[in-house]
């Protein structure tokens, strides 16, 4: 249900308060063409608390282009009179890797050249916020699981944000945004830097000095408006906190050894000096690695047998340990943080390892083919039923499996022609039912029948088809959550390797399973015919290696 709420408090506040704080709150959880995002629109419920804290609030709940357009126009018109600016966006976002847009309810399936007034430019809002340094706050409530690819140039999620100097940006899951705005931002006198540090899942970027109060108490001036000596001390402290260096904090202490933030400055200096590998951490953060780039690094580590404990684009303890182990083996300082040189070295090593794996797989395949041909000459090539079945038992998907099965089918047909009518009818009935019970009844009735071997083989096959191992393998593949695009990439890679996966259509059929088992067998993996994480990492790494060669 669509609801448009425009809370205009201008008439209820004194003139000094009217110009003090302006808030734009947009929440979208219902979409006409995209998947809904449960509770994303609840952020507009924070309007009452913001109003009580002295904000003029413009809020739109599940709005379309017209409602949001009016709110944006009113916001832009009111900005010149506002001393503090707050923008809260909760819902779905899209990025081309450089720019970021907020998607409204009526946004169609996004494409890079199809974004219009139904999407709001986050970069444009940052430009507006830049006019209020140290008094501008942008909060983005996102879907932490967003990974959709809209077209080759546009994906779901946030891109790198060019945050202007003096602007604060907070990013967190949309489910936590409402509570954070209500309980932290709207609370007068709250230390925003401490609240962000204590909040689970909230990340602070840009201007966020220690002791930063965005919403002052009644009668207090906002940051940047205090008169005289207090304003000078505040400005020096905020500048030191923004730089976050020992030198900057030292400058503040030289000027104000007994100042309001002297204790915080000394604590910050101690923390900087105590933090191990701080320079390396800041250097890695400065690279601005995207989530996909982080996934690539994790895949490369895994390919080189440094287990990152998942390929999810999040550098947790497992990934940091894997990086540390890789650095130790390659003669780098063990900081757990990467610089550009190390990332390039890691990528090159992974590419070489991928090629080595492919070469080893080719040698294994050739050896298996030689063994296959030799066994065929000793068994199936003689043409008797026992030899054909012996071959298929050892090589059910071998080079001559189709030939062997065709010959067995011909033998069975010959038997059917010479079998007695009663036995033939019983066998046909068992084949039609195709159950273990039906085949056992046939064996009981015809223990010396012409189709005893076929019945026993079918009973074994039915039991195998329901084996626990296959059930686990099938469940493991389902847990990977593959989409059709990834499935087609995998089929294309199997086809390029000459494994004949059948139609490249993003659907795994019998031919695809046969090709997967061949791929896994050649590379020393468990040959189930279903995808698991090691197989997926190898396939994607093989694909990357092939593209690097091209």
Automatic annotation (TrEMBL):
Residues 340-374 form a coiled coil. Residues 1-19 form the signal peptide. InterPro entries: Caspase-like_dom_sf, Peptidoglycan-bd-like, PGBD-like_sf, PGBDSf. Residues 291-346, 489-539 form the Peptidoglycan binding-like domain. Gene3D superfamilies: 3.40.50.1460, PGBD-like superfamily/PGBD. Keywords: Coiled coil, Signal. This is Peptidoglycan-binding protein. It comes from Rubellimicrobium roseum.
